[in-house]
Structure formats: C-alpha cells, structure tokens
Amino acid sequence: MVATSFDYQKATSVEQAISLLQSHDGDAKLLAGGHSLIPTMKLRLNSPALLIDVSKIEELRGIREEDGHIVIGAMTTHYEIASSDLLAKKAPMFVEAAKVIGDIQVRNKGTIGGSLAHADPAADWPAVVIASGAKIKIHGPDGARTVDADDFFTGFYTTAVGENDVLTSIHVPVPPKGSKSTYAKFPQPASRYALVGCAVQLTMDGNKVSDCSIGFTGVSDAAFRDSNAEAALKGKELSGESIQAAADACADGVDIMSDHFASEDYRKHLAGVFLKRALENLK
Ligand SMILES: Cc1cc2nc3c(=O)[nH]c(=O)nc-3n(C[C@H](O)[C@H](O)[C@H](O)COP(=O)(O)OP(=O)(O)OC[C@H]3O[C@@H](n4cnc5c(N)ncnc54)[C@H](O)[C@@H]3O)c2cc1C
C-alpha cells in the first residue's frame, strides 16, 4: 500500500522539532530511521500530516563517556552501536544486541531512539536498556526530564514519551569493576525481531553474584525487568544449580504473549532457555 500524502520538514534543533510537534496538535510525527514509522504509514496505521525529520540534528548523535555514564544519542544507528569500541569494552550487551537487529539495511538506518520510542514488544533495545539500568532523557515543551528504563515502557507500544516530546539520549551507568553483560535472543526467522530476547548484567564479588539485572523483551506486551530471576542469582555462585533456579523462576507472574509465532507456553519455555544461554555465556 501507499501512504497518504504528508508534508515533510527537516528540523535543525530539538527545540524546533518540539515547536513543530506542538503546532500540529498530535498530527505530526518525528522521523528518525523510518524503519518502523514508514511501514506503519504504508499500512495506513499512521497518517501524520507532517513528518519532522530529526535525523540530522547533530546533538542527537554519537556515543561518549560522561560523568560515570555512557551517553548514547537517540539518533545513533544500530550499526554505530555495533561498531562502538567504548560499548564493546564497557557494556558489551549493547554491541551484541545491535549486531542481531534485523539486517544490514535496518542496522544502517534504524536508531536506538526510534526503537525505544516505538516500543515494539519484540524489539531488542528495551531489554538491554532495562538490564543496563539506563536512564532515558526526554525533552518536551516544559524542558528536559529523565525516566528510569524500568518505568519507560508503559504498555503495548506505549512509553513515557509524550505527544510533543523528543527522546534525546540514553544514559547508561558505567558498570562497576567485576561486571559483565550479554544479550541472547531467539529471532523470528523472517523479520529477526525477538521472539524472546534476554539481556543480563552481572556483577561478581569473588565467585558470588553481588548484583544482577535481567531484562526480557518479546515475552509480554512490554519489556520488563525480571526480579524473580534476579533474586534466584543474587548472593549465589554462578553454577548449573543457580542458573537452573533463575530459569525456573523467570517470567513468573507475567502476562505472557501468545500469537501465531509462539504460544504462551512456548514463549515461557524460550524465556528460560535464553536466560540460561545468557548466563552460561557469562560463566
Ligand atoms: C525488516 C525489518 C526488520 C527489523 N528487525 C528488527 C529486529 O530484529 N529487532 C529490533 O529491535 N528492531 C527491528 N526492526 C525495527 C528497527 O530497529 C527500527 O529501526 C526501529 O524500531 C525504529 O527506529 P527508527 O530509527 O527506524 O524509527 P522511526 O521508524 O523513524 O520512528 C519510530 C517511531 O518513533 C518515533 N520517534 C523516532 N525518533 C524519536 C525520538 N527521538 N523521540 C521521540 N519519538 C521518536 C517516530 O515518530 C515513530 O513513531 C526491524 C525493522 C524492519 C523494517
């Protein structure tokens, strides 16, 4: 199908993008990589009167270390994250996840900010930002605010980003010494979206897990942090026994999705399998 007609404007600053959004009263959309928005426009699930291209706003790009955090600009592409030496060294699950998103075209155009704002329940980034303890920075008509990744995803394709807001950056705390992280995913064979994706960050004190955060995507209508699985690991050695206990505890009490790709039971099973794989990677 073909999208309905729309106007197009390239914004040169975050302030301009916000004022264009405000002046169109809910009838404008930000355009980042276009890899989620354009397909929905072609299917006429979205028919904005104006597309505001934010991809050339320089302040929204790049990856840098600042005040104990790694700051990733919203318009940083999946490819740029996959190629980042800083993230490979300090937060490797970001690089691992970026490498398994879609195909090379998707990775070249798609952005982390666009993905987080879109909040597809099968997208990879939500699990990773949750497990990393990131804060998401949002600019709106009333100024800037930050939202914990745990609170950012509010439901099916919904987030803390308001109608006239721009998601500007992701702030990832530099993990403490002794930390390691990984991302394990079962991709839908055609689209590569996650049937189940599991991001894990562990901090070890000697041979015991002193801290641990686990984010899941693909399992429920929004990505979530799995505190039951985390509790099964904290204070324990990373052994076959503790890994199995975490896998048994995961996705408990969660409203699990069921669709033509995977039933509820199968998704729950996959959540355990991919948590185990992630933890085995970190042993
Ligand atoms: C064939 C295919 C395979 C894919 N496979 C995967 C996969 O395996 N894993 C995965 O995670 N994703 C996958 N994707 C999705 C891809 O990662 C998209 O790039 C991503 O979901 C959206 O990013 P974007 O930059 O393209 O955003 P856009 O499509 O431009 O925008 C998406 C939405 O976010 C809004 N938005 C964009 N930027 C901002 C911002 N800064 N602030 C506020 N709102 C904003 C837009 O208005 C729009 O509503 C796939 C896509 C395709 C087409």
TrEMBL record:
It holds the Pfam family FAD_binding_5. Signal peptide: none annotated. SMART domains: CO_deh_flav_C. SUPFAM superfamilies: CO dehydrogenase flavoprotein C-terminal domain-like, FAD-binding/transporter-associated domain-like. Residues 1-177 form the FAD-binding PCMH-type domain. GO terms for molecular function: FAD binding; oxidoreductase activity. Keywords: FAD, Flavoprotein, Oxidoreductase. It comes from the Bacteria. PANTHER family: XANTHINE DEHYDROGENASE SUBUNIT C-RELATED. This is Carbon monoxide dehydrogenase. It comes from Flavilitoribacter nigricans (strain ATCC 23147 / DSM 23189 / NBRC 102662 / NCIMB 1420 / SS-2). The lineage of its organism: Bacteria, Pseudomonadati, Bacteroidota, Saprospiria, Saprospirales.
